[in-house]
Amino acid sequence: MPKSLDWIAGKLGYEVKRTNSHVQFFRKPRRGFDAGATGDIFADWTTTNRTLNEDLRSSLKKMRARSRDLAQNNDYMKKFLRMTRVNIIGPQGVHLQMKIQDSKGTLDNLANQLVESAWKHWGRMPNCTVTGDQTWLDLQKMVVETIARDGEVLIQRVRGFDNEFKYALMPLEADHLPEDLNKDLSNGHKIRMGVELDKWNRPVAYHLTGQHPGDGATLSVRNDVVRVPADQIIHLFVKERPGQVRGVPWAHSSMTRLQMIGGYEEAELVGARSSASKMGFFESEGGPGDYKGDGVDAAGNIISEFSPGTMEELPPGVTFKAFNPGNPSANFKDFLKTMLRGVASGLNVSYNTLGSDLEGVNFSSIRSGVLEERECWKDTQAWIIDHLHRVVFEEWLTMALTFQPTIPMPGTNAGLPFRLPLRKFNKFNAAHWQARGWAWVDPMKDVQANILAVEKGFKSVSDVVAEQGRDLEDVLTQKKADQALAEQMGVPLALATEPEPNSPAKEAKENDDDED
Questions:
Q1: H or E element: which one contains 10?
Q2: Tens-digit pLDDT profile for residues 374-425
Q3: Distance, CA of 274 to CA of 1 (rounded, Å)
């Protein structure tokens, strides 16, 4: 190896030892962390520390626009957003199960039924939103998808709204918060990207534009900023760093790959179509001709379009050089799979689900991926319940019971206004939220495992039922109703816990045990 390369090795953190027969490279000894090392190899790796707010101030608007573009035009991004809506909220939404207790500590079934019924009624159109065109389930799905796509969403609480509950919600896109509104106020507060903070960095107000800045119809109209107190706004975003005031699109680390994947697929598609549309040419031996092709580009070059089965005559002096793109390339499949795996990791979903690719998987691998992905969904479910469902329910309960007798509690006159004391509010504010669950990956093995866990005391029956996204009280109530209906109809209802001898279920269980 030439000695001139010793300098390059030194820049890369190596030292060279030469003998008569060979050359050896050794890592230079150093203390500290490799991630804190310097040198040419790390020259493009930033060493500047800034607050996340400062990073967002300059790039949030662009990231949000690009995320929305991917949501409209990229198949994988659309799949991810659909996955968030389906797995976090589900077809039935996050279910309310009241656990109000009486003075003896037992469930107050009447009070629970009244609150649940009123909540369900408010969640129908037109009560839930100010526009009257969404249910509570519709709003939950839209909110989750908006947070995933834009990184954040605003919901304005409208107290005293003209409905029987005196309460409604108005969702707003994050564009109403101007990212360029940043200043310090004379009262010690500060505004960061439209959010007014006190000395503890607690939001005290939101400075919102009256019209959506992206609405072309309002570009010629003055868009004044209105200060809205923080207790009227629910600002939903996942806080990743202390002091963060705005949300980041969930696909921010995967957006570059997704965009490049789209461009690469388009290039391969065009190349494949070109390869399948090979043309033939006839060269004329006549005099000079006026060859015009199909037009010219901006530089004056002749453009000749091609399509399958087309033959074209060339003018004298013009020769044809064969063009055979050979697309799609042999590496297309493997490259696309590698890129999508990186995207899936950034989105916290399994590659097989995002890419709709079950090729080469076995039961153990797909089970492991599905279970890991579900844990991520459960984590987000718990977050959305704490920051949306509990907040909305507590304020709804206060408004419904204080200003309008929509929930006639036991011992009250439903025809008279009913004002709820604070001590009673704490009693009635006993909401239990049950997010959607999932079917077992391997029903036979999972059911048997749960039976064993309950028998050994590692789980309760409520835990098993909750994993399926249901509530034990509802299950027992339905089971009792099934038994009563069966007795009324005179039809025996088989509820055996073990399969009958020689039954298909028994044989399937035995075969499954043999495989183990």
A1: helix 6-11
A2: 999 999 999 999 999 999 999 998 887 776 555 655 544 444 444 445 557 7
A3: 46
CB 171 within 8 Å of CB 129: yes
Determine the residue type at 414: A
DSSP secondary structure of 11-52: HTTEEEEE-SS-EEEEEPP--S-GGG--SGGGTTS------H
**pLDDT tens digits for 273-316?**
777 765 555 555 555 555 555 666 666 665 666 666 565 666 66
DSSP state letters, 325-392: --PSPTTHHHHHHHHHHHHHHHHTS-HHHHTT--TT--HHHHHHHHHHHHHHHHHHHHHHIIIIIHHH
Q: What is the pTM of this model?
A: 0.76
Structure tokens at 92: 């039935």
Asked if residues 159 and 167 have their Cβ atoms less than 8 Å apart, the reply is yes
Structural domain boundaries of the chain? 3-42, 56-277+330-438, 279-323, 444-516
- For 230, the token pair is 């923080």
CB neighbour class for 248 (10 Å; exposed up to 12, middle 13-18, buried from 19): buried
Entry field: residues in the chain: 516
